[in-house]
Structure formats: structure tokens, C-alpha cells
Amino acid sequence: MMDGAATVQRIRTADGVAIAVHRLGDRSGIPVILAPGTFSNWSFWLGTRGTGFAREVAARGFEAWVVDFRGHGESQRPAPGQRWIFDDWGRLDLPAVIGAVTAEGRRPLLVGHSAGGASVLAALAGTPGLELDVRAAAILATPLPWLQRWRWFGAWAMRLASRRMDTFPARLLGLGPEDELSGVMEQWMEWNIRGRWTGRDGTDYGEAFAALTLPLLFVAGTGDSRFAPPAACRGLYDLVGSKDKLFVEAGTDTGFSRDYGHVALVVSRDARREIWPLLTDWLLAHANRA
To answer: Which domain does 90 fall in, by range?
Structure first.
């Protein structure tokens, strides 16, 4: 594992929000931008006890760029009455981070977990020309919203609750270390209910995904029945048009030691032994994409 603390860089988005990026590893290495999901922050990738996938990335010769999306970790928080939505992560935050990488004359690889994976795809499909600045992307435990199991009553209830509160109480519910922005939750549930993934500017992401051509790796956990069931991840994979794409389901029936759950797919001892090498080997194989 890579020892040492990450350095924090502040990056301004197009709408003026300060995003924190935690950088670790050789500054001459190929950057790997790591995006966490909802209810989370930098700690998902860097760990809190010196162990995290970002450190493995750095140990394999890359430079890890761990993103705190707006409203999370060390990034800027919303002002009273300010309502940020899910689109802001993919259409403002990630393009700003990718732009900071390309400003250094480099092209990154992208890795996103859960909603972080959805943000990666939204950024690539919804931002003209951005795909050309990226080598490849790995999408982990990211479902097609309307194929999740809580589409009906659960989605309606969460959307209603999100409209009535400033933040969704994820910590109280034991879902993660960060309460979630209510606008993020509301927009995701809207997609879930309507069965259509539409951006604030009218972009139909489902259609836009079909135009993607860069190499893509999708990984789902067999035991992830709550947040990203394999069938919901496969549904998203099927929408993507790239001819260079791979779907992996991590479970005992496919040769893994366990049926991986949503978080354990990245954060577990078994993941360190089985999933991390799979991911880093794939990143290395696509590191020199022209």
C-alpha cells in the first residue's frame, strides 16, 4: 500500500463552486479520477485507517485524484436556500476536475462507484467533447434508476421527503458518513419514478449513452440486492453504445469468493484480494489509449 497523506487541491467549477480533490501518488503518473457515490466522500476511496483503493492506485504507479462532490467532504457547502441537484455532479463538478487534469497536459482514467459512476457517465455523455479528454472509465455498482427495487412506493416516499427537507438524513439511517443533498435525492427519485433519465437542460442520458465510444468496465455485485442489483447494472450497461465494454458480476457463481454487496465491492478485505487487482489491471491495460 502507499503510505502518506493526500494533498488537497481546490478546483472552481463553471458556476463558481470550490471542489476539493485529494491527490496521492506520483505526479508524473497517469491520473485516475475517483468519484464516490451518495452519502459518501473522500474516505470511501482513501480509507480512514490508511487503507483504500486510491492508495492501491497510487502504489501501482498512477496518481489518484479523489473527488469530494459539492456539499460533501472538504468541498463547498450550499448556502441557505441553495439547492444543488444530481446533475451538478456530472455536468459541473467532474468536467471541472477533468479540465484541471488536461490543463496539466494529461488525460485521466475515471472510476465511479454507485452514484459516482452515474455522474461519470452523465459527464461523458452530456458534455460535448469531454469523452476525448478521457482514456477509459470503470463504473462500479451503478444501476439504471428505474430498475432498482424501490421504484414505486419507496421512490415516491423518498422524493416527497427530499422536497421537504434541506438534507436527507443518511447518517441517522446508517447509510454512510454524509447526509445527502435533498436536491440530489429528489432528482434521482424523479428518474426512478418516470423511467427516464433526463438532465436539467433536457439531455436524455439514456439516448446520449448510446453515443459513447471509449472503453468502459462495468462491475456489479451479486449480493447487492438493495442499491444496485446486477440486473439494474446490466440494464445500464446495455444502454451504452461503446463496442469496447465489459460487464463483470462479482459472485460465487462467476468465480469469486463471495457474493459482493454494494460497499463491499470496493471496501472489504476480499475486495482488496479480488476486486482491486481486477480494477488496477484493467486500468493499466487502458492507460496508454491513444
So the answer is: 7-146+200-285
Asked whether residue 194 is assigned to any structural domain, the reply reads no
Is 70 exceeded by the pLDDT of residue 150? no
The answer, yes or no, to whether residue 60 has pLDDT greater than 90, is yes
The CA R_g of the chain, rounded to the nearest whole Å, is: 17
Closest CA to 122 of 142, 108, 106, 104: 142
Instruction: Find the angle CA(82)-CA(153)-CA(126) to the nearest 5 degrees.
Output: 50
Q: Could you give the angle at the alpha carbon of 92 between the alpha carbons of 124 and 66, nearest 5°?
A: 80
The mean-pLDDT minimum among 116-120, 145-149, 260-264 falls in: 145-149
- Looking at residue 148, its pLDDT comes to 82
pLDDT > 70: what percent of the chain? 96
Whether the pTM exceeds 0.85: the reply is yes
Residue 64's CATH number: 3.40.50.1820
Predicted confidence at residue 166, as pLDDT, reads: 79
In sequence order, the β-bridge partners of residue 167 are 181
Is pLDDT at 290 greater than 70 in this prediction? no
- What is the number of domains present in the chain? 1
Residue 166 domain-assigned? no
Establish if 246 belongs to a structural domain.
yes
Quick one: pLDDT at residue 214? 97
Residue 146: other Cβ atoms inside 10 A:
16
In this prediction, residue 263 carries a pLDDT of: 97
